[in-house]
Amino acid sequence: MAGAPDRALVGIGMAAVAAVVLWAWLGQESFDSVSSTSLAWVLDNFGWLFVVAADAFLVLCLVLAFSRFGQIRLGADDSEPEFGNLAWIAMMFSAGMGIGLMFYGVGEPLTHYLAPPPASGVRPESSAAAATALEYSFFHWTLTPWAIYGVAGLALAYSYNFV
């Protein structure tokens, strides 16, 4: 590690988090109004960015995996993995998707079928709504979330081992 954390920076961060938590606790109606309006504005203006960013993470993971960077060892030169690839895949799938797929595997497509996202422009309970519901579910539950987790995990692992 690179020494002690900057106390001023940590203090400012803690104060900001405490202020938001207190506002949410003491001024629930105003906090709800501001946060709902802010979220709606972000989604209306930058919703496309979520899709582009998730796809960019997926491309980045593929580039990292199949380029020379995929050969970087994240551990000591003489270390051996505790688990094999199949065991790691099983653990990641179970932890990351197990309960989510059990609960949302049916619920999310039905929700999008009955009330399609406004940006889709399709009529609820139509064949177009069914297709849109599956598109959104596939986007949320296939490779894109794993790419996001992977980029975050690789950044942490690389920083831990080499910075």
TrEMBL record:
It is a multi-pass membrane protein. Signal peptide: none annotated. It holds the Pfam family BCCT. Coiled coil: none annotated. One of its GO terms (molecular function) is transmembrane transporter activity. It is found in: Cell membrane. Its main location: membrane. Keywords: Cell membrane, Membrane, Transmembrane, Transmembrane helix, Transport. The chain crosses the membrane at residues 7-26, 46-66, 86-106, 138-160. It comes from the Bacteria. GO terms for cellular component: plasma membrane. PANTHER family: HIGH-AFFINITY CHOLINE TRANSPORT PROTEIN, HIGH-AFFINITY CHOLINE TRANSPORT PROTEIN-RELATED. Belongs to the BCCT transporter (TC 2.A.15) family. This is Choline transporter. It comes from Streptomyces cyaneogriseus subsp. noncyanogenus.
